[in-house]
Design goal:
The structure is a homodimer. In chain A, strands 9-10-13-11-12 form a five-stranded mixed barrel. Chain A has a five-stranded mixed β-sheet with strand order 20-19-21-22-23, sandwiched between helices. Chain A is elongated. The mean pLDDT of chain A is 96. The longest helix of chain A is centred in the middle third of the chain and has 22 residues, at 168-189. The relative contact order of chain A is 0.13. Chain A is of the alpha+beta class. In chain A, helix 2 packs across helix 8 (298-308). The first copy, chain A, has two domains: 3-311, BirA Bifunctional Protein, domain 2 (2-Layer Sandwich), CATH 3.30.930.10; 324-415, Anticodon-binding domain (Rossmann fold, 3-Layer(aba) Sandwich). Chain A has twelve helices and 23 strands. The first copy, chain A, has helices at residues 21-28, 44-63, 77-82, 112-119, 168-189, 240-246, 272-275, 298-308, 337-352, 366-376, 386-391, 409-415; strands at residues 32-36, 39-42, 67-68, 74-76, 95-98, 104-107, 131-140, 155-165, 195-201, 208-215, 221-226, 232-234, 253-268, 278-280, 286-288, 290-296, 310-311, 314-315, 326-330, 357-360, 380-384, 394-398, 404-407. At the A-B interface, strand 1, strand 2, strand 3, strand 4 and strand 5 of A face strand 1, strand 2, strand 3, strand 4 and strand 5 of B.
Chain lengths: 416, 416
């Protein structure tokens, strides 16, 4: 893609109303635009990163045998009244609105309740189970304060997976498979070595849930990380009683800050019972369906990666979720038309070998172009200039290490 | 994909609260689920159709040189006050809600206003123009009545494209390119020969706009279709004055019902002026940016295709937007395990040749399976049974014509 077509521009000033480093960088580099406190639009660069995260998550959901659907954002109050979650006293993040006839409706902050009701039309026998469903759908949460930029927003895309099984044993088995898929996702998006499965409160659903916490000073959560980094315990359940149950003592843990990038819940019959989602077993006996839910917010993953990987010059994207694979930067194209021609040829070669390329074809100074490239943070930068053309090789710089090598077009096609 | 994994079931009963044939069929066949009047969730089959339409539309947007982004659903009231579109008197389809601190926010019914404001950060010179942006994003419209099923809903995905140009001439040229892209889209999704460019009111933006209307008795609009079917005039502007301007007379037209599947507007400076989106020309003089907007609702296109293509047995999908390319139906798999093995082999062969396949592996009667297959409406049905295995060929039926032929696996791989 030509950078002249991208329309966004980088900004030198740090936005005054953002304290999170990730929000500052993503705004300055033109990945997102702030509409309201806690509400962001995704510009082409940001949308590309989110889409790459979504594609990785989708692959892992398909590997679990889950099927994709898309539930509505506007929700029927009746279903939430059945589960006692409609009042602001029970759920403090509702956005509500009204039809013209004054019928009150909710904006989805999650989808367990309407999905459970819907499944009554499709599940009646043990033969209909298990079912695993997921979606990528907007969630609206009326947060009292929105102060961590992209890490906690009032409107965000969420991947939510739901399991419907006949027995608790089937839930337990799928839950561990889902946890393993989550670990694989953190590895694939590049935050695996900082992310740890964490014992957390199960809320009203069960004694415990599992969170996946990425250790990072910018995090809103406090967790206790085992010294060997194999697991952690959220502050909210870090009690003598829980530690005893886990066979651990406080000396095993260090207190750290962390970002919750995913969470998984054993819902049991919390929703199936009040909503009447039941199945009949082989003997003809009726039981409530056993449920689980499993969430990931792709934009929060994006912001977490930026918190972890940046320097004073800008973002350093993990290769798998970068908006582009290679940034081809042509210098002084107005001086010699052959430079643009050479850059275009290189872009075509790289694209033919399966790379996504951003081509800086703008008429700006080399200094501005290099600063933009460092800020945007594409893993590999290739310079095409009068000098490189004379040398017969390209100047290839790795954003992460800063290492510069010189390569021919053939070498580049093979190695980037 | 295995049909046993799909979880949805077809329904025999026609939903009592739906009058549109498309909604009845899409609900019965398990493409969508109704959450509220005018609010639908998309089940796996429906999501697949929408995604195929989206993919076609996206290709055509990219061909226009447009770049994809994604704006927020929650919108700042201030921007709408600047353009005098915040009050319910000026816009009668608003859904509004509130932050915890009582700040009123809107749910996007369209995105011209916040997008125009955002572009002030990126456009200042003639060198920054033109810019063409598009998104696939949910729109919320508080319709007084929702009575046409999927044809008019309170929440729907929309592709909206926006053009920002320096001059009216640049707008006119892009507008015609966009109109041509729209015509190509109707052809590609299979509704081209029923869809006609239609003169319509330009509302508060300009004298005329162009609608793309699909001739269909279920449509909510009345249009006057020229006898040679090359163009049409919407009832709202079907006056002697307009006909004179077009050089036509009433005898040239027939009155028909139609569904508006797309519309394009020359916005001019309607938004750029009040919001102060300006550019400086080469002489240093400031001008408001000239805008256009271009919409398509993929789910309405889906419902329109169903209105056009169905029979008493169910839906007949155009091949390009069908949820799957081939429906492999195995009969009596419990009777002989070799039938399932053969069906699986066939599915793998077809998938290897690039086909998307739904494999009916369920233990149901042949009658039930055939009825489901006709209702769901995948273009090609292939039966694998004891009989076909003896014959050494598969029974291949075209959903559209009902024509049955017998083919070997090799022939199938080449022809479907």
């Amino acid at each position: 893609m030509r950078q002249s077509q991208l329309f966004t521009k980088t900004k030198k000033e740090t936005p005054k109303d953002e304290t999170a480093r990730s929000a500052q960088l993503l705004l300055r580099a033109g990945f997102v635009h702030k509409e309201l406190a806690g509400v962001y639009s995704f510009l082409p660069l940001g949308l590309r990163v989110v889409n790459r995260i979504v594609a990785i998550v989708r692959e892992e959901m398909q590997s679990l045998g889950a099927v994709e659907l898309s539930m509505s954002s506007l929700q029927d109050s009746n279903v939430w009244k059945s589960t006692d979650r409609w009042s602001d006293a029970s759920v403090d993040v509702w956005f509500k609105t009204k039809f013209k006839n004054d019928t009150e409706v909710g904006l989805a902050f999650t989808h367990e309740d309407p999905l459970t009701r819907m499944m009554k039309g499709y599940v009646s026998s043990y033969r209909d189970l298990p079912v695993f469903l997921y979606q990528f759908q907007t969630k609206f949460r009326n947060e009292l304060r929105a102060k961590s930029g992209l890490l906690r927003t009032r409107e965000f895309l969420m991947k939510d997976l739901y399991s419907f099984t006949a027995t608790k044993e089937d839930l337990d088995a799928f839950y561990e498979k889902a946890a393993a898929a989550y670990s694989k996702i953190w590895q694939r998006v590049g935050i695996g070595s900082q992310t740890v499965r964490t014992f957390a409160s199960g809320g009203s659903f069960s004694k415990f849930s599992d969170e996946f916490q990425t250790v990072c000073d910018a995090g809103e959560d406090t967790i206790y990380l085992e010294k060997d980094k194999s697991m952690a315990v959220n502050k909210e359940v870090y009690t003598d009683e829980v530690l005893k149950e886990l066979g651990k003592t406080k000396s095993d843990f260090d207190e750290v800050r962390a970002i919750e990038v995913g969470n998984i819940f054993k819902l049991g019959t919390r929703f199936s019972e009040p909503l009447g989602l039941t199945y009949t077993d082989e003997a003809g006996k009726s039981h409530p369906v056993i449920m689980g839910s499993y969430g990931i917010g792709p934009a929060r993953v994006m912001a977490t990666a930026v918190e972890l990987f940046n320097d004073e010059k800008g973002i350093i994207w993990p290769a798998t979720i970068a908006p582009f694979d290679v940034h081809v930067v042509e210098l002084n194209p107005k001086k010699d038309a052959a430079i643009s021609t050479e850059a275009e040829k290189l872009v075509k070669e790289l694209e033919a070998s399966g790379k996504e390329v951003l081509h800086d074809d703008r008429d700006l100074s080399p200094g501005q172009k290099f600063a933009d490239s460092d800020l945007i943070g594409i893993p590999v930068r290739v310079v095409v200039s009068e000098k490189t053309m004379k040398a017969g090789t390209f100047e290839v710089k790795e954003r992460n290490t800063g290492e510069v090598v010189h390569m021919t077009m053939e070498e580049l096609g093979r190695t980037t």
